[in-house]
Design goal:
mainly alpha; 4 helices; 63% helix
């Protein structure tokens, strides 16, 4: 519920890109919660697919919104 409340706050005050990333993360968390557990050996492929850091794009959107984006 806290995650849903946070995303709802972003809906009120955030920019569209930040909201889209927040909703994407919320969907991924929900999907992971109901998905079967993954074997440890499968984690080696996550880095190649960019799945190891699912918050990276959300963090970039937040920094952009705050005017902290790098060059």
């Amino acid at each position: 519920m806290k995650l849903y409340a946070l995303v709802s706050t972003i809906r009120l005050f955030g920019r569209p890109r930040t909201l889209a990333e927040a909703e994407r993360i919320m969907d991924r968390i929900g999907a992971a919660y109901f998905a079967p557990n993954k074997a440890l050996r499968l984690f080696s492929g996550f880095t190649r697919e960019g799945e190891l850091d699912p918050l990276c794009a959300f963090g970039a959107a937040c920094r952009e919104e705050l005017g902290l984006a790098g060059p």
